[in-house]
Specification:
By secondary structure, the protein is mainly α. It has one domain: mini-chromosome maintenance (MCM) complex, chain A, domain 1 (2-Layer Sandwich). The chain contains five helices and two strands. The relative contact order is 0.19.
């Protein structure tokens, strides 16, 4: 396996782990956030951003993201793909048509 294949596999693995982490937060925090932003993202200016609280992340996910901190594109890809999975559990057709092209994700303290 080449280094590129190993990196792609590890990016997919951390994406899945982050998605599961988000789905397991108490009170369905991130699912509710997705429902709330689903209707706001296409019409509000400036476009709202899906914010993930660092304090909600498991330690192993924090360390994986931290180890990739110099690779902003990889972190952006991981965050966006994990959040896309959360949105796809809400209203997949509307998300794919109206929200996904505008989706922004960031980590917050």
């Amino acid at each position: 396996m080449t280094n590129v294949e190993q990196l792609a596999f590890s990016i997919e693995g951390i994406t899945e782990a982050l998605y599961l982490n988000l789905m397991k937060i108490e009170d369905n925090y991130y699912q509710n956030l997705a429902w709330e932003l689903l209707r706001k993202i296409p019409i509000h200016k400036p476009t709202p951003v899906y914010e993930i609280k660092i304090s909600h992340l498991y330690d192993d996910i924090k360390s994986e993201l931290d180890s990739r901190w110099n690779y902003k594109d990889a972190i952006d890809q991981i965050l966006k793909e994990a959040v896309t999975k959360v949105f796809l559990n809400t209203n997949p057709d509307y998300f794919l048509l109206a929200v996904k092209p505008l989706l922004g994700v960031r980590l917050v303290p």
